[in-house]
Structure formats: C-alpha cells, structure tokens
C-alpha cells in the first residue's frame, strides 16, 4: 500500500475537511526500517558510535534512526547497508525503497502550523498502532470526543487562539478518530477514565450531554473498550497521572509509553518502563468498573446532568 496521503476526505459538520490516510503511514515504515538497520548493525557487532561515524553523524543519530524518530537520507541508508555487508542489489533496493516511502509526509504534516513537533511524533505512532490503552483523569480521551467537546478542551489550552486555528486543531482530532471507525485495520482503543472527567461539564451542560450520549454509543463499538474508575474506588494505581501505551501489529516493533506534559512529551521504550506501565494499566482495568457496566453508569450520569 502506498504511504502517500490521500488529499480528499469527508467534511465535518463544522465545514472542516477530515482527510483519508494510509494504514500505518510513514511512521510505521520508519520504525520497521529502523528495526531492520538495528538488526544488521548488531548482527555484525558494530557499535552505534562506529555506525554514526560511517555516515558522518553521531551515535545518537543512529539511535534516532533505529527508533524511527527521524527521516532517512538515501546516502545515509546506502552507506549503512554497505557497512553492514548488504551487497545484493535486490536487498539493497528493497531497503532503499522502504526509506523513500518512509520519508513521505503523513497527513498531519499539513497541520504543522498548529501542531508542535513532539505531538506530530505521537500522531505518527497513533496512526501506526494496532491497540492503544490509555488512562485519563481530567478529560474524555481525545479519540472519543465530540467536536463541541473537543473545541471546549482545545480552547482551554489555547484561550487566545483565533477561531480558524481552533477549527484546524479540531479537524486534526476528528481526523485522528477515523482510525477507530473506518477501514479493515481499525484501531482498537481501550480507555480507563476517572469519573471526574465525566462529571466536569466542559463546554456547558448541552455539550456534555451530547458527549455522554456519544460515549454510550461508542460502548457498542467492537473497537472500543471503555471503563470508568468511580469516586468510591478511592486511591488507585495511576497516581502519577494520565498515560497511553501503544502496541503495534508488527512483531519487530516494541510497545511505546506516551506521557504528555504541558509543553512536551515523553516516549518510553525501555522494557523495564513498559513493563511497569503495563502492570499499572492492568491494575487500573481491575480497579475500574467492568466494561459491561459502563453504559449504565454513563446513562446515570446523563440523567443527573
């Protein structure tokens, strides 16, 4: 499948365009190529320092390439393949073609005027993921938000932004949601949400009522699992705040833990960190109300609003 973005898409009720996109996108291709290059390097016992020197760079550049965090220059990949003993023309061309495809901009790059670079990284990972498990304490998770609720949340973070910028940010969020609803390889999304996020009427009561109805509808989707941690649960495992764990279909790609901060984000990939957050997420799922009970709880909150 071509990783080139598709320039046409649906139109949201507010008039903004929601773009189509390829499965996985360029981030997945970069991660796959990076994994291949790491295997070749390690298979030949070459250090990241020596590999970096071969491409006129540093060991940190090699690490970023192997993690799929940067684009690939044709010359760099060609020189690394030579260093790693890949001389067969077909093998070389296959990997070089993968590098060319991985450099194709994702659909979200056209929004780089409103998206910080650290969040563009996350969107790329989100587009490549097969499963995302997330914990949220303050807001309804972005992939489950209605347009009006998303608009209210975005205005909180950008109170001085002009209306056109707010709408571009809303369009990004709505486009991201398409991975849950459309296509043969839809994203599976498992969210554990604190009850406080569902009681906070962002945007006003009418907006929140619509948001709760939307969540009730999503509980019937086979790609969404939604659990709520009620107030009476007391303290729970995720005292440190919200986080997400992204899992990918390709066996060569390890999970990534995403921690968003006010002006930046952390991406954790070490196995010890990932195991710790998996354990916390598993405990949250146990401490929360079972998923089959979510619809009833949402209906109760809707009646009280």
From TrEMBL:
Region: Disordered, residue numbers: 1-23
Positions of the HTH cro/C1-type domain: 37-92
InterPro entries: Cro/C1-type_HTH, DUF5753, Lambda_DNA-bd_dom_sf
Gene3D superfamilies: lambda repressor-like DNA-binding domains
Stored Pfam families: DUF5753, HTH_31
Annotated coiled-coil segments of the chain: none
Name of protein: Transcriptional regulator
